[in-house]
Each structure stands twice: as C-alpha cells, then as structure tokens.
Input
Amino acid sequence: MAQDLGDIEKLSVEGGEDIVTPWDVSAEEVTGIDYAKLIVKFGSVPIDHQLISRIEKVTGKPTHYFLKRGIFFSHREMERILDLYEQKKPFYLYTGRGPSSEAMHMGHLVPFLFTKWLQETFNVPLVIQVTDDEKFLWKDIPIDRMKQIAFENVKDIIALGFDMEKTFIFCNFNYMGQCPEFYQLIVQIEKHVTFNQAKAIFGFTDSDSIGKISFPAIQAAPSFSSAFPHIFSGRSDLPCLIPCAIDQDPYFRMTRDVAPKLKLPKPALLHSIFFPALQGATSKMSASDENSSIFLTDSQDSIKTKVMKYAFSGGQPTIDQHKKLGGNCDIDVSYQYLKFFLEDDHKLEQLRKDYTSGTLSTNELKLELVAVLQKLVREIQENRKLVTDDMARQFMVPRKLKFQY
Output
C-alpha cells in the first residue's frame, strides 16, 4: 500500500548522498540515483511485470517501451485507473512543464512522449500546465520575458504531435485570470496545508518568499477536474492520472493528502527516472549549460559534436583494454540515451551485448546515438516550423474538448 502524507519529512529525500527534491536532483554514484531506495523513501509502488501485463490486457495494445525498460518505474494507484478504463468510466491526464529556457532539451521530452502514448492508448483528455509563475518566483527573470519563454515552450510541446481536439495547454499567468474556479480551488488547497507542512515537504525556510510557499497549491490544482469546468462541464469527481518525473512526487503526495478533505478523488501517478546529463549521472543538466544536453534547437552538426565530445563513456581507457574487458552500459551515457530514444528493442539489446563484450567501441556506440538523436530532433524541428502563434493560442483557449461529460 502506497503511503500518503503521514511522514511528510520523507518527501524531500536525501537517501545516502543522493538528493531528490523538486528543485535539486543529484546522484553520488556514476550509476545514478538509487531508485529502489527512492521507492521506499517516497512510499510509492514499483511497476512490475504484472502491472505491465495488465495494461496490455486492458488496452489490447503493446505497452510503451518506457514501461518495459523501467524508464517509468513507479506508480500510485495505476490499478485504479485500469479499473476505471475496464468499467468504461472517465478519467483524464495531467502533466506539466516548468519553462526554464526557450529551448527544451531531450530530457524534457520524456514525460510528453509518454503522455502522448497514454492519451492515444486510453483516448482521454489531457491538460498540460506550464508553470511560468513558478519560474518567475525561483529565477531572476521579468514576468514579460517569462511569459515569452513559456509561449515558446508551448509551441515545442505542440510540435510533438498532440491533438488540439483532445488537449488543453495553459500557462498559469493567463489561466488564473480566465477561470475563477481554478483560483477558488487553489485557495481551498492552500487552506488545508500548514506552513509547517510546506516546510517539511519542500524544505522552505523563513527567508523564502510567500509566493514560493503558496506555489505548490497551484501545481496541485490541475489534479482535480473542477479546475477545468469548460472541459468537464463543472464535474469535480473525475479522477486524474499524472505522468511525471519522480522529483515532482512531493507536490502530489501533498495533493493526495488534501483530496479527501475537499471530498475530491486522489490523483494517480506514474513516475519516471531522471534523464542524465551528457557528462554523466553525477553531473547536472542545466539550460544554462548548452553542453550538458541536446536541445531541440541544436543543429545536426552540433548534436554530433556534443555527443562525440561530451557524452560520458563507460568504455575502457585504451582500445586493447576495451576489447578485452568491454564497456559498462550502466554508466555509459550514450547507451543510457539510447534506452530512452531507440525504439527497436532487438537493436538496443544487440548494442548492449556488443558494447559489454568489447566488440563495439565507444565511438561506434556514440555514432549510433548521434543517428537516433539527429533523426528525432530533425523531425521535431520540421513539425515546429508548422506551429504558428495562432495555433499555439488555439491550444490555450479554455474550451470544450472532444469528450462528453
């Protein structure tokens, strides 16, 4: 049984030397975060073969390779969502984006690619929250500039192929004034979370602004269907499924604790692992360091240069040693990136065997990754050219989607 907010001090976790909070993630070991320990600390449930098999049985479709490869590895009450789907009862999806820079990087794609698969597989509405207000509170960026960055991110998200008839994207600065029900819900959530709880969950201090302290209620609100009366005809009883990285879980642990007090359904969650920086799991990926990841604005040549020059290698120091001892896929960034973006299971497994045995060199593995990333980024860039400002604004108009409630 997954825990809720009983031990709120467990939500901001420092497991050994690993640090996982909504604003800071760092691993002590080159193999990355210890996710088994994180599951225990957060009180979530591992995604096992039984759950994956049930998803396939219920939907009649193969599960996404993100599930099979453990990229989405943990959940809260996914079984309840599957029960609803079997019973032909409605639910909806909610995910988000914190717009820290105009150009999204490859790590930012992970929740959106998976959410798109979930939406298409279950045929449900999707709401996407862009937290321009959060980034204004945490970063030294003027509001007008923050809104501009958020709008560019919206266009990146649309370029991934979301269906306008089934998807509502909103930026908090705009939506707060468009929907009074949204603000009313935020205030109700705020009323049920004390300052002591917020400090314990998120690590706030007395010197943090009151804007930061109140923000978690804003991220929590889209978990409830009453935040979107135009979509759900004013209904407040529709359950929500949230795909997100595990560092966002504290927000929704708080939300799940508040939900019964508001007589609203608890959101269910699917958690992903973290996407590593090019320099390895102990490094931090940052929008301010263009060499820490591949960005959607990178040229084909830039992608190749970054991977060949900066991707952390699990290979041996010399060619002879590599042929004898082989490479370590657990720490090799090129292989880790291929786990995220190479869809062919058989080819991925062959690359793993060849690299581990030493018959495939680090440079050859990097070139495999370059080809995959160049193709993916090129396709997204081509789609992005077709996304006009007017199209983005249409996605952001509060409106009825292609569902009846």
